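Example record used in the benchmark description.
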Amino acid sequence: MATFLCRLGRLAFRRRLLTVLLWVAVLVGVGAGAATAPAAEDQTSTMPGIESQKAFDLLEQRFPGTKADAASARVVFVAPVGQRVTAAAHRSAIEEFVREAADGSQVTSAVDPFKGQAVSKDGSTAYSTVSFGEKADDLTDASKKHLETAIDGARDSGLTVEVGGTALAEKPAAGGTAEAIGIGIAAVVLLLTFGSLAAAGLPLLTAVVGVGISMASILALASAFGLSSTTGTLATMLGLAVGIDYAMFVVSRYREERANGHAPQEAAGLATGTAGSAVVFAGLTVVIALAGLSVVGIPMLTKMGLAAAGAVMIAVLISLTLVPALLGWWPNRVLARSVRRSGRIEEASASNGGSRWARFVLRRPAAVLLLSVVGLGALAVPVMDLQLGMPGDDVKSTSTTERRAYDALAKGFGPGFNGPLTIVVDTKGGGDVKDAVKTISEKLAAERGVVSVSPARFDKAGDTAVFSTTPSTGPSDEKTQDLVNAIRDDRPAIDASTGATFEVTGTTALNIDVSEKVQSALIPYLAVVVGLAFVLLLVVFRSVLVPLKAALGFLLSVLAALGSVVAVFQWGYGADLLGVSETGPVMNLMPIFLVGIVFGLAMDYEVFLVARIREAYVHGDPADQAVTTGFRHSARVVVAAALIMIAVFAGFIGAGESMIKMIGFGLAAAVLLDAFVVRMAFVPAVLALLGKAAWWLPRWLDRVLPVVDVEGEGLTREAPDYPASAKEATREAARL
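Model output (structure tokens):
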């Protein structure tokens, strides 16, 4: 591996113009493909294998023309204090709103609250549901403007009017400013790390090229593979982060090889052969983690994972070819300014912060290990109270009309009104649908925790009915989940008495089902990802205990990060500092995202750090000295890489949406804990306590495992005679 990559790096360095032109051609080609490809149809997110999704599918089949994901707006009217919406002036204004809203070009219906049960018992609140025939993304600006004008007219009458639903809701922005902030911080970190504008700019340039190719490829293939507009979000985030990191590792190793006296071309080859080998295996661990998202069984997650895995592979290829090619253009510019001014390349064996920290840990490994494990364990304690759900309008800021509409409905109609359960009755297998609906409605109305049951709506064939059941608790409340489970537990007896079947669906039930599916898939996903990565690290490090230590360290960091998320977003500790308006359940996909993404990134740091330690051990250093040597060469760049990751993810904490805040905070916390506690404290402490035993491998396993030269032992046979001194290397670089 190292020998092949060394030759590849030298070839890219020599043929730098051809290499750059090839990557430019790829970028132009996929860009043209993206520009000419047909627009991808909006794909409805489906969750196969859960009851609520089956009921949604049945509704669309039995009630043709209805769209489960069609846009709607719930317009809430609140009378001034001491007044009622039924007063003549207020009633007239609401009825005028209904008439005007119904005239919208894409509106299918606008419900008059006074002709139904849409007025609260105390008369303070009423609501009208405006339904559209298209999804929210397909609504025209004219349709939205028409509805907003009607709302403004009702407000002018003195009523407080708030709007919930999807029709006018703004999509959360996950990129843009956040990505710009992340790139800006990354540039500062790179500049401080390398002390050279060229060295800092090169990883940023190659990362942007990689993300451009990845996103253009996704757009070009979107129609053919049914990729939605959200598929590329994860690919952009990870492609940018690992693209910067991988290029930075190669550039850092190039500078180190120059400091060891090697000529520019040879230094580029050696950097690609050694750091490039680590990049390949680190990239493979990330790909395993992302491709493993398919285990969950949610198509959206599978597509996002595979798209992001493709972006990571592109980042790996760019770091192995485009980076050494650009080093050929700037062989000296990437060196520190002090080196360029003096004309001398400093020796790389001097002590630095990394080696000093390693010696500190080696002097007291047991204390460092105990402190790191206890600290991470304490942060992980809140995981025991983890509640999964899908945060909605209830966790938005009170400055948003969606949150105010939610609160007004909860106050006027009860907390469960915002999360009704939809009951779908099917008598196609036998039984009278009206008799079945009557029996089922009576049974559900008698359930503890049910406030009301609405009248049923029947399909044309007369074999399907749908009605709503309103719980007494809110959609995020655990009691609502208990109610759904109780209804489903009592269903066999009800079905037997009616000859019909019924299913529970609706947004609340869907979120409950997805949460349960994610929880049940988390352990198998962990087993698949950790198992495959264990095998990969076993091959790379030829050790049983090192991969085991890596897996245990990852579990500690991810549990601590998830515990931090629970403490902030569920318990409310420090929520005000992050601008979290309301606490609530943790987003149901958050654990899967956290495990998948952070596992890949954690293995990045593991490979880059421990590969240098093993390289020193293989080349003759004692076990303790190998740890110090590895940290001297890699600690600074690993810290810089982690800071870049944290900057990219932390930029999303400033987003307005609670879910985006949660993702950004969780990922930033996980990288912080994994890089600075696990990799910088836990790992060296464990290696110090194990000593030579850390590199133990049974003889029979040693014979079975393939030999992969990550440490670059074979490079001494491939490399030509190196310059006798750093001075000769500097003179050779000056000729380029």
